[in-house]
Amino acid sequence: MPLFPVGTEIPDYYAKPQWFIGRTKYCHEHKAAGMLDQMGVEYFLAQQTVRRKLSDRIKKAQVLLLPRYIFIRCMNSQRVEILERCPSITHFMADHETHLAAVIRADQLERFRLMIDYEDQTVTIDGSRFVPGDRVRVKCGPLMGHECDLVEIQNRKCIVASLGILGSARIELPLSYIESV
Fold first, then answer.
1. CATH placement of domain 1-104
2. CA-based nearest residue to 150, from 164, 165, 130
3. pLDDT tens per residue across span 153-166
């Protein structure tokens, strides 16, 4: 019996490329990125430029926001081949509820990328799950027009981009930058 009987619609999980979460060996994130690049597979390595104060100067450095994780856009059927051809990737994260490989929605990952690329403030990764609060839209700045969840953490208002089973990325914005949806 076929997995999907004739006449039924095949779910996007199997029919379209998805953003999966790959787990790498310790300090192999860039090596995995290079291998995926050679294979022609789209990936995203979450890095942010931070300023480090040294004794005599301030130096800019690239820091991994999610050490040992790499986001990989591929078909579900390609995951086995990626694991075989890229030994730096040990496995794909699984969703404990569905028992399938965890997927990050494209709009969530895009919002996360924008936070990293265009905001001067440091993006904080919060591994805890959150209860979605008020839905807000950013009305100025590089994230203008994007809708996010507003949460309050330690009496500070933050906007949040969900990263599925990894938790969420958050950034603090002045309340004057957001409006209710």
1. 3.30.70.940
2. 130
3. 666 667 777 777 88
